[in-house]
Design a protein that fits this description.
The structure holds 2 protein chains of 2 kinds.
Chain A: E1 8-14, E2 18-26, E3 33-41, H1 47-57, E4 65-72, H2 74-80, E5 87-92, H3 98-101, E6 126-129, E7 132-133, E8 139-141, H4 148-157, E9 162-166, H5 175-187, E10 192-195, H6 196-199, H7 205-235, E11 241-245, E12 251-253, H8 254-259, H9 267-282, E13 288-293, E14 298-304, E15 307-308, E16 310-311, E17 314-316, E18 325-327, E19 331-332, E20 335-337, E21 343-347, E22 353-359, H10 378-384, H11 402-416, H12 420-442, E23 454-458, H13 462-473, E24 477-480, H14 487-493, E25 497-508, H15 514-534, E26 542-552, E27 559-563, H16 570-588, E28 596-607, E29 628-635, E30 641-648, E31 657-659, E32 662-665, E33 670-673, E34 678-681, E35 687-690
Helix pairs in contact in A: 1-7, 2-7, 9-14, 10-11, 10-12, 11-12, 12-13
Chain B: H1 3-7, H2 10-34, H3 38-41, E1 46-52, E2 57-60, H4 70-81, E3 92-95, E4 108-117, E5 120-130, E6 159-163, E7 166-167, H5 169-177, H6 182-210, H7 212-235, E8 240-247, E9 253-260, E10 265-268, H8 284-299, E11 313-316, H9 334-349, E12 367-373, E13 380-385, H10 416-422, E14 425-432, E15 448-454, E16 459-464, E17 485-489, E18 495-498, E19 500-506, E20 511-515, H11 530-538, H12 544-551
Parallel strand pairs in B: 10-11
Antiparallel strand pairs in B: 1-2, 1-5, 3-4, 3-6, 4-5, 6-7, 8-9, 9-10, 12-13, 12-16, 14-15, 15-20, 16-19, 17-18, 17-20
Helix pairs in contact in B: 2-6, 2-7, 5-6, 6-7, 8-9
The chains are: A alpha+beta, B alpha+beta.
Amino acid sequence: MTQHHATLRAATDVGGTFTDLVTFETDPVTGRQTIRSAKSDTTPPDFERGVVAVLAKAAVRPDEIAFLAHGTTIVINALTERKGVRVGLITTEGFRDSLEIARGNRPDFFNLFYEKPAPFVPRRLRREVPGRTAHTGAERTPLDLAGLPEILADFRAEGVEAVAICLLHSYANAAHERAVLERVRELWPEVSVVASHQITREWREYERTSTTVLSAYVQPIAERYLSRLANGMRDGGFDGSLYVMQSNCGVDTLERTRQIPITMVESGPASGFWGAAELGRLLGEPNVLALDIGGTTAKCSLIEDGHVKIMTDYWIERDHRSAGYPIMVPVVDLVEIGQGGGSIAWVDDFGKLRVGPQSAGAMPGPASYGKGGAHATTTDANLALGRINPDFFCGGEVEADMDAVARTLDAVAERTGMSRAEAARGIVRIANHNMISALKLVSVNRGHDPREFTLVAFGGGGPMHAAALAGELGIRKVIVPRGAGVFSAWGMLMSDLRRDYFLTRLIPLRRERADAIAATFAEVEEHAREQFEEEGVTAERVRFVRFAKLRYENQEHAVEIHVSGGVIDADAVDDIAIAFHEAYERQYTYRLDAPVELVGVHVVAHAEVGKLELEQLPTTGRTVGETVKGARFVDYALAGVHEATIVDGSLLEPGMELDGPAIVESVDTTIVVPPDDRVSIDEYGNVHIEVGGSTA
Amino acid sequence: MTSAATEFDPITLEIIQSSLQAISDEMFAAMRRTAMSAIIYEVLDMGTGITDGRGNLAASGAGIPAFVGVLDKAVKRIIELNARDQMAPGDVFITNDPYHGGVTHLNDAVLAMPVFVGDEIVAWTANIAHWSDVGGLVAGSMSSDAREIFQEGLRLPAVKLIAGGTPNQPVMEIMKVNSRLPDLLQGDMWAGIAAVRVGERRLIELVDRYGCETFVAAMAHFMDYGEQVARQALRSLPKGRFELEEEQDTGVVYRVAVEITDDTFVVDLTNNPDQDTGPNNACRDGSMIAAQMVFKNITDPYGATNDGTFRPLVLRTREGSVFDALPPAAFAIYYEVEIRLYDLIWRCLAPHLEGRLPAGSFSSICATIVFGPHPDTGRHFTIIEPQIGGWGGSASGDGNSATFSAFHGETYNCPVEVAETRYGLFVDRLALNDAPGGEGEHRGGKGIILEYRVRSDHTHLTCAYSRFKHPAWAIAGGLEGSPNYIEVVRRDGTHEIHAVVTGLPLEEGDVIRVVTGNGGGYGEPSNRSPEAIADDLENGYLTPERAREIYGSG
């Protein structure tokens, strides 16, 4: 057997139903890049079997893989399905009820039957230890661990599998928390245990306690999962590097992820948004609005100057009906709404047409799937309007049930007094409007003008709606990436090793406090370096990006300002202040002549782990004419009905151009090009749409 | 279908209506993020909204339900008090005076901005927020000793704050010099200005996109829709005339009669005491808000709220009474009067509405004001906060514990870690209140115990809690809840109990123990399931002695 060299780069993504694989391979001689993808069933509880199976299906041997990025929904699923372990909480004396008290808010405020979310740990498993750290970090009362053995004995008797520790002010000084952690490990070595300072160093005790509890809740499950994945791959001969996708748009090592698995909670959307940022960088488009439309939801995020925004203000199950649960870990700033291809159209008691948030899901799915879906969905409306080709539905794998489409649309039409076509147009316009609202939340509501951004649309439904949304928002350019259906996997392969560190520390922003500010950044960076060194990543490979969280004194919400590297002296403090006033005014229309205060720092530590180099797509000399499959009438809502050119997306090559009205059909997506828009293909095969008129 | 819907494309109308909601929310987000006072950005004692050109409510943002109905009333009064030919694009008006459209008390400042299309005012954007100090007798401006409005601070009678985009600097200087916390006032004011301006810009974009005529029609149609929803729900309610009288902690008796027919919901408050010589008064607009909230709760709690929603509602009051006070009555504690009235109407209807209403809750704002020197900085700090407490049990289950009153909504308590940093106090304890009370088939939720340890002399406490002598009411055989009060534990170990006090001096080492009540019980305790009783016992929500006494088990 000849000695081979592992060169393949692969991404596997374990979802609720399917396990996906995408591999990129570059021929060392021709430089030509081949992309392979495959799908197989997810195999709970032995998830590693699905991963091995999908590799086999694509004829990829584990020993060929040099770099494997792995994404999984195991954490979010365990949380939402309540499949975690029993947790015991240890907290500061006087505060065991913090987790149940939460913040006292009631988002559904006219509803007197509102139900507050139940705590993940019942009161009898929330126990207290004496000892107080002050807000300054100084010790007020020494820690007393005399009661700990009894607490742990009770936990064992109750079947607790994971212990969460969160003490007051541990973000300022973690000594007490560390002492509890060490003692628990001594007294009960087998138990899974996590203390809040290992996850976050930010203030707000309810949020930090909730974060620690939810992390403990999924920790044994994620640990088992990751161990079995690593073993399964190693047994297959894999000897490359295995990285796990995180919610902060980076990947991290298996070892690190195993300790704090809660950081994976939103890794799915994060990889797609990172892909959009990387694509923007590659194409010289630093300002991107990224839109991912799937079957049940649409997600969007704003990328400014090539940077994704990472925040720690993340909650699960929070909406206008529920307060939800906070998880204070670095998560890409995203807005998600219940609008996707499967969103159900319905008519309220007063004849008003609505779309979503209920979805037909995978089963029964939209009416057109012919699996008994009794309600018209956005996908069905797109079919009726001629945007989706019924003869090439789901890449030709499903025969569209157009009778069911007509029947369900007629039901909507009858209740609203519209024609069938009007109903279909209405559904698409309302769905578009809902998505526009989400795009505005991440742009205009945060002080950004969408007209200064390029819309990058992916996921099954993104390309279908993107041009219309862009027209409405005044966006001039839309990019649909090549392989829009596997774009998230591509993003995963473009990720760096990345960790986001947040630390709460209040310091007045004054020239004479420059040293204290510099010391805060140095402290965080030193800690990061140490952590990376422990894992074999040498200091010179680690790069830092600094942000300061600032506000006018007495305010609560901070604005995050980029701080340049290097020495922070009195002049640098002045520069930070200038940048703050400018950013503040841009976002809020006014500035104040008031003292400014640093609330904390955010440091991003990156280490490159060898990214995928994207190659240009070769051309064959094919003409645009040869990509045309035919023509059909397409209803563009307010822009009227037009005969559109139908193009086979798989045949498009760099340099090609065509005018709307057109429809570009590929196996995994359909691109709708309105009448006044122009399409061009870039050197990597991405589809660019130059937006002409407004087409809502 | 209404005429508006037949003349205009219904989908376009729908898109405009949903945009109004989104714009209200955007104004809310902008204001929250820039406000200076914790009572605005954390407690969210604020609201935003959009009215049509005549001041009828078209959409309101998140925040607190008790402010939803304030802004339309304020805008209508601004329109009444200012000549139309004196209004121009870029103007911003301000009012805080209940006698000039302020609705609540002087601490709440309403800012409103006309939205011009050509010469026509097609809409108004507005917001309201609680400012930390507007002068008057005491720090925080809310004194339980005030006897007339002149003692409660600076009055801003619906005047122009910004004229054509240019700040009216003299007015701003007068405002600042009248406040004990001028920097906060200035920051909060600009947060409000930023919010109305954002709303104005968005509404103009909306008109540019869809045309003025369609925009105006969309607002009209939206209100008609609100009315249709309300009327349909009204028809499903039991009909009749219901009456209740209830003694208050102060000894006065409030009375209400509610008459529900197929077309109207009449709240009659005419038979009530004369206005209070102190600050326990509401103006007629304020009383209307209490009635509107109950009406919304029992008709359509989930849907949009606009002018149409309240068209079937009729309020009867008597001028010069506590619910329709005339000048120069003081209003500082209006919120306890209003929440008592709200609770009164709720309690009056609960037995007759077939499970549509839960048992009574702790039902007080429990406004708590502490001010004094911050030992870390030497500067003065001021806490102004409402408290969380227990809600009543209902047909569907136990009441929520530790939740803000029905007057609040998306309101957040202050984290202990933030409080200890920001204020010159330590927090020794924040726990659920294990006092007995509120038992039943479905028990009331738990109140809280919150202990502040005073760190410096010259600290002062002001509070105005109700439901101290008369705790949360029960229903269908449940037990009443437990009281709201503050217990001050002096350094020498002596205890005092307060429900209403102004400027109580405190010294280092004293403890302010805030205690809020459990909600009332729903249904006979004997019907409570053994599993629920066992769960209460295991988790310490119930003692074995009390279990034997009330449930005959444990």
